[in-house]
Amino acid sequence: MILPKTFAAKPPHPTAAIGIFGGTFDPVHFGHLRPALELLEQLPLTEIRFIPCRHPPHRQAPMASPGQRLAMLELAIAEEPRFTVDDRELARSGPSYMVDTLASLRAEQGNGPLCLILGTDAFRGLPQWHRWAELMELAHLLVMKRPGEPLPQEGELKHFLESRCIYDPAQLAQQPRGLIFPLEVTQLAISATRIRSLIGAGRSARYLLPDAVWDDIRKKRLYSAPLFMPEQ
Ligand code: ATP
């Protein structure tokens, strides 16, 4: 007998996870987008959720406003339905602690697997994050190898890597949290810092980020010396 869909037996484990990509995205660029697409293709992820932070606790305040960064992200992801933007950190006052963000996502997702996406630079800085060890009680960590940024070879992170590192991505969907999966993604030596300084110096950032984002930056004169208005 074929059961209707609603009565079909559920699999013992959830089969897909949600990727959580936090950052300042000041602005979002291909160094974020291309690796995110590769994660979707290689891992059991149904969605990648970009979460721009309002008050980054560990670095200078972003140059573009929360609304401007959100608008650039929405333009950047418009063509990929599995990319979404979540503005919960922008709506929250006080420092944007990732542990609070993951706790609110966990409350919504129940026991569904969550994967926090980090570049190697962000991973190496993890011990400076607020209540950082709790992050792994809430989500897995996906560590994207970033040009010139090796994985930590000593200290607490080395210990976490040794005890939690996995090599089979299927495991990410079989348990909700607590594993670390480092992976190679296309190495794009692009940073938002470099983009801001190019624009500030009156140079073009075209081809480092989506055209729609570049057009938005020029239209709103973000990051720029006031005289920079080429490329009509
Ligand atoms: P900035 O230069 O202002 O520090 P950024 O380019 O590092 O910005 P963020 O928004 O701070 O961008 O980064 C969000 C996340 O994306 C971080 O985990 C960071 O490690 C990762 N990331 C940024 N650029 C790349 C890249 N080119 N390759 C891999 N990961 C990246």
TrEMBL record:
Gene3D superfamilies: HUPs. Pfam families: CTP_transf_like. It comes from the Bacteria. It is an enzyme of class 2 (transferase). One of its GO terms (biological process) is NAD+ biosynthetic process. It catalyses: nicotinate beta-D-ribonucleotide + ATP + H(+) = deamido-NAD(+) + diphosphate. The keyword Transferase applies. Residues 20-196 form the Cytidyltransferase-like domain. Its EC number is 2.7.7.18. Pathway: Cofactor biosynthesis; NAD(+) biosynthesis; deamido-NAD(+) from nicotinate D-ribonucleotide: step 1/1. Keywords: ATP-binding, NAD, Nucleotide-binding, Nucleotidyltransferase, Pyridine nucleotide biosynthesis, Transferase. Coiled coil: none annotated. GO terms for molecular function: ATP binding; nicotinate-nucleotide adenylyltransferase activity. PANTHER family: NICOTINATE-NUCLEOTIDE ADENYLYLTRANSFERASE-RELATED, PHOSPHOPANTETHEINE ADENYLYLTRANSFERASE. Belongs to the NadD family. NCBIfam families: cyt_tran_rel, nicotinate (nicotinamide) nucleotide adenylyltransferase, PRK00071.1-1, PRK00071.1-3. Catalyzes the reversible adenylation of nicotinate mononucleotide (NaMN) to nicotinic acid adenine dinucleotide (NaAD). This is Probable nicotinate-nucleotide adenylyltransferase. The lineage of its organism: Bacteria, Pseudomonadati, Pseudomonadota, Gammaproteobacteria, Chromatiales.
